[in-house]
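From the pipeline queue, job 12 of 40. The input is one protein chain; the requested action is below.

Action: predict structure.
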Amino acid sequence: MEQDLHPLLADGKILLSAGVFDVLSAKIAERAGFHTVVLSGYAAAAAYLGEPDFGLLTQTEILDIARRICRSVNIRVMVDGDTGYGSALNVIRMTKELMDMGAGGIILEDQTWPKRCGHMRGKSVIPMEEHVQKIRAAKETRGDADFIIVGRTDARAPLGIDEAIKRGLAYREAGADLIFVEAPESKEEMVRIVKEVQGLLVMNMIDGGQTPIIPLQELADMGYISVGYVLTGLFAAAKAMEDAFKYLLKHGTSSGYEDQLVSFENFTGLLGLEEKFALDEKYKS
């Protein structure tokens, strides 16, 4: 597996995370070799509700999905906590819940509720100090535990890059382990974020989004230490299913499409079928 890794990943110079939306996608990412996955709110809303990332997913629903994933994989699971779904008190509850289930961290953003995808139009943000208090609440709840807090700002679109940088600095000072300035619109803005916010910085690469897709080496050279492709898997899965269903409708069979499918044996291996057979035999009378 290691020989298939990008050199920067093999050398541990930057972290690359895959976005997931359910247990199956998390298992696939783990088997592919990812050490960290991000439970994406956008992807979860699409897969769980069939709805856009428009503030329709609830805290209870995202926690349920996170719990299922955390107990099914042995890699770090970062959870998109959206705004924390309320005040600092809601953030405390969510942080405790995630820590109890073994999640690796939470991403907290400063949008107003109902929030929307960071690359959609019409966003607005809460006062900076209000989000500072949410980050402080998460940090105090976390204590000394191995649980990462990502402070995210969505201020770039509604208030401009200057305000986004200002907020990034404030969230770093409040105790966020990683800072995530969402949806910069150029390489120049991305470089400026690194220079002015400093600290440990995260960047998302959203296929079709507002931020240009930049090669991993260039992102590392800029100074980013963590990069997430949080929707690539979702978009790839949707395209693969769409193509397969069109083929079935046209040909009335899956014959001739086998090269595009994971094998039955490979898929059941991913799910641990043989282990379940062995466990079943163990407890038969």
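Job complete. The mean pLDDT is 96.
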